[in-house]
Amino acid sequence: MKLFGVGASDHPMADVKEARAILDAIPAGDPFKVLEDLSHWLESVRTWPGFKPEHRAQIVQMVDDAAQLHLRKLQREYVSSQRPSKFLENRLWSVIREWHRQSGLAFAICIDAYATGQKGWEDLKQSVPLLTVRALRALAAQMKWQHMRYGPAENSLWEMIAKIYALSENRKYSQSKAIAYPGSPAETSPEQEFLKAVMFAASSPDSLLPVEIELVERLIAHLAGSFKLTTSPRPDIVYCFDLANHEPPVRAAHLPHRAPTLRFFAAGGAVKEIEKLAQTVKSTGAVPSSIALGGNYEPEVVLDVLDHLALHWAPKPPERRAQRHRVKSRLTVTYGFDGVRAALDPTGEVQFDPGKVESWIVENVSAGGFGASVPQIKGEWLKIGCLLGLQPEGGSNWLVGVIRRLTRESPQQGTVGIQTLGRAALPVQVRLRSGQMGISRDSETAILLNPVDSAPEAQLLLRANVLLVGQNLELERNGKAYLLLPTGDMERGDDYALVRCRQMIRDTGE
Known about the structure:
This protein is an alpha+beta fold. Among the domains are: about 325-420, predicted glycosyltransferase like domains (Thrombin, subunit H); about 425-505, Thrombin, subunit H. The chain is built from 11 helices and 16 strands. Helix 4 packs antiparallel against helix 5 and helix 5 (about 130-150) packs parallel to helix 7 (about 190-200).
């Protein structure tokens, strides 16, 4: 612009009224276009050299305010029950995450002017708690959207969170109250936003589906007032974060050192609150209207998330049931109910799709499963809860497992945590039995995970939506007829249901 004789202060948003007119003139019909335009304006305001700190902060807040309605609409669309097409999903994710990136950088620049004493920094004293709240919220949102695609943790984001929050402590405004956005139902503070970020990281989001990640963030926002933060370890404090280390939070029990920059945190009273909430959902079959989850969710989905948080927020967090052993070996993998069924078929009559076979590298193994690296991610099937058939190198039998954790180091590479469901699984035929309809004439394909005749419980995999509430199963094998009574404890995937049943030998003379 200077090449044409325009001064640095002649930015289109150098005047507040002009900035408001520009924002009001952006067509509101296409939220994608709106958010993209506002991201560009935010970047322009952040990088323009002629703004005074207070004016830049004012314009950044105006642009941020203008984006919120459109941002919420796109975020709801991403986590809706009707999953968008892959193209639309990628577009949604990209524009949402880019907005949070630009927002975090813009607020960080404003706070840096205050921290470094740039000319005019005094004018930011009143607004810096709010600027800090929005900065921490934008940085935490970036992390959340990284987890939506199972991307790796970015330590640069933790570095920014640590520096921004540490400044709020040093300047004595970490507990200053602020309304994050116009219309927000409650006040917050830099400390509370910091706690929300570290509690989210401590909630094991890499083992959750996108809709569950959304619910975790919403529940954390609802319960944030109960979280605890201290500068010294306590028996009921589970996790800690080093403001000088710039790495994700760790369990306090695993600390290699003590330092004044350590901050210890825990869910505090939120543990009892989620237990009460779970009881309410179970007894009423609905989520209380006082909890803003951003949408309507099935009670079973909410209960699964509450159970997950209760486990990871407990004063004694979950420990590994079995010791891990480092190994390096190949693992042949197939996926989906049909892929696993074909791999287990002893007759070879079920067609085995070679396009559903991959080779992974086992990094560690335990009694409960594997940790493996995926050298090349093919397609879009790899996700939390995906059913796997697994054949270790040198073996002839197939194991059955399910993906419990997923992290993508890049779009084409990742690591997975696999829980083993069955080591000697067998394909079987079962028939459905209900009180009104009697026994079905047609049999259903199932995978018996624990084929032991004397076992009191049978665990089966069925195709999704085959078994209805109130139905039992009949199974014949090894010359015996079994009545299988589902216990109600059922896990569902995209194309399967894992059913646990009481196993009874049926009197064939009935």
